[in-house]
Amino acid sequence: MVSFILGTTFLLLSSLLPHDSHGFAPSPSTRHVVGGHSSSIPTSSSQSKLTTHHMFTGIIEEMGEVISLETRDDMTLWDGSKGKGTEMVLKGDIVLDGAYLGCSISVNGVCLTATEIDEDAKTFKVGLAPETLRKTNLGTYVPESQQRVNMERASEIGGRNSGHFVQGHVDNVGTIMDQWIDENSLFFKIAFPYEFMRYVVPKGFIAIDGTSLTVCDVHSEGEDGENWFTFMLVEYTQTKIILPSKKVGDTVNVEVDVLGKYSEQAWEAFVPKMEALETKVKQLEARLQELEGGESTTSSSATDNDVNYGQPIGGLSNVAAAATAPTPEQVKVKNTDGTEWVRTKQSFFDTQY
Question: Given strand 340-344, what is the order of strands in its sheet?
Fold first, then answer.
């Protein structure tokens, strides 16, 4: 049954993800540049085709730099009024290849929207919503810290995925409890809130600061106990992401595998219906046993109009007496003591058994 639920979940995800390029706008041939003017960006025939960028893979493309982090109170909202908000300017190279206003770029595992792009300076601006600042560690990445960030462009659905489905929707922040070296591997131990630990499983996927990684060990003691998991970085990955530069006590953005969430939701919706069905079956079995007077037995010589069941109970003789003339749609049933009663004919049961 669990495999059925998981299979259904995968099919649901497949149906939600686009399988071709129809309905997606091509990357514009011009980009908005800080300062209010545009610069022409040459496009190849492949770039001019419709794209299907949608999610991320957790395979980091480059480590970028935080240029500025600013909170403003003069940001224009949809109705023309002014509001307060936080903006971050970042510097990158690879992630700007094919970028356009409104495109999604993963910054430390957070899916952010490019609102301004400066092609000459290789920078882009994103907005950080209050929910983003509450759930992630991006608010701590001030320029003075000289911390770098992991960056990845949105993936093309239908293309190769060397990681896993990463949404860029961080669940919460984890804290580095310990780190150690195991030959050429670098291990990390991460403390994580208990409410999310049910989605963390040994050898399962997890995204750490946007990096697709494999969980090694899991330890969960409940809300009042220790809750942590471990993962390791192979030699190649250690030089391509920001994690090795972090130390004990630092935080990481964590996104659990979304398939676990979908599976849990589907299972929770299914279980009450299954329990109700089991209850109904038990009630019907009890009622049938009551009518038949115990365990049912079927004679090997039973025919379409001569079926043997268990002993009758009080009241069943009245049913038999009222059924002396069954219709063509009914079947005369004989009990082991010779009494008879009538039930409606069931085509599949009566023809197959």
Answer: 307-309, 330-335, 340-344
